[in-house]
Amino acid sequence: MYDFIEGNIEKISPTHVVIENNGLGYLLAISIFTYEKIKPQKQVRVFVEQTFKVENQSPVAILLYGFSDPAEREMFRLLTSVSGVGNNTGILMLSSLDAEALSSAILNGNVGLLKSIKGIGEKTAHRIVLELRDKIGGKKLKAGATLMAPGVSDPINEALTALTVLGYNKAAAEKALLKISDNGKTALSVEELIRNSLKIL
Predict the structure, then answer these.
(1) How far apart are CA 116 and CA 4, in angstroms?
(2) How confident is the model at residue 149 (pLDDT cuts 50, 70, 90)?
(3) Is 13 exposed, middle or buried (0-12, 13-18, 19+ CB in 10 A)?
(4) Residues of 88-105 as b/e, b for ≥16 C-beta within 10 angstroms?
(5) Burial bucket for residue 142 (CB in 10 Å: 0-12, 13-18, 19+)
(6) Phi and psi (nearest 5°) for 41?
(7) What digits encode the pLDDT tens for the residues 151-172?
(8) This prediction's pTM
(9) Percentage of residues of the chain with pLDDT beyond 90
(10) Domain boundaries, the chain
(11) In CATH terms, are 4-67 and 70-136 the same topology?
(12) CATH superfamily placement of domain 4-67
């Protein structure tokens, strides 16, 4: 079991990162928030959750999910403990709202906010609140330091790629991004573009 991996970033996108450590490259799925925090850095420490892909009741692959801080990983573990919330859905939720915002939504029973996340229906949103409210127990999860805007040359294209990987229609995502950025006239970070687009998609 891995707790964290520390090394150099070899490759990074809004959904995945490859970290090199002692000659091995670890491929980890990440959230938008983790992407924004680690992209400006060359060497990073990423907290890891290891899961297994199962087919016909047998594990066929090891999957690694990376998080910029332990609080985000803990929220991922809580979310995926709920029936109907898989690993990909957990990452999508953490790409839509950070750990602190999700914690607040659950504690306040904000089903409407949870339902606004792609793939989360009313029943699942109610189940998340019901099962996790007591586990969180009024303890606020801190997502860490303020997100840093990366120096990317074309954040709109990066945000579009991330949204399509997350399952959104490319044309609809492009329309939302152009609306948010006023046809590219407003300079926004990838994280800001994605977060604001998710509100209208």
Answers:
(1) 31
(2) very low
(3) middle
(4) ebbbbbbbbbbbbbbbbb
(5) middle
(6) -100, 155
(7) 333 778 778 877 877 778 888 8
(8) 0.68
(9) 43
(10) 4-67, 70-136, 155-198
(11) no
(12) Nucleic acid-binding proteins (2.40.50.140)
Q: Residues 6 or more apart from 45 whose CB is under 8 A from it?
A: 4, 5, 6
State how far the Cα of 82 lies from the Cα of 96, in Å rounded to an integer: 18
What tens digit of pLDDT does each residue of 34-69 get? 999 999 999 999 999 998 876 666 666 789 999 999
Query: What is the pLDDT at residue 57?
Result: 65
- Given a contact cutoff of 8 angstroms between Cβ atoms, the answer to whether 132 and 104 are in contact is no
**Residue 37 CB-half CA count within 13 A:** 21
Spatial CA neighbour of 64 closest among 29, 22, 25, 111:
29
Give bridge partners of residue 18 from the DSSP assignment: 11, 27
What topology is assigned to 70-136 in CATH? DNA polymerase; domain 1 (1.10.150)
Q: Tell me how many degrees the CA angle 152-89-184 measures, rounded to the nearest 5.
A: 30
Q: What is the mean pLDDT of residues 104-126?
A: 88
Give the integer Cα–Cα distance in Å for 141 and 74.
9
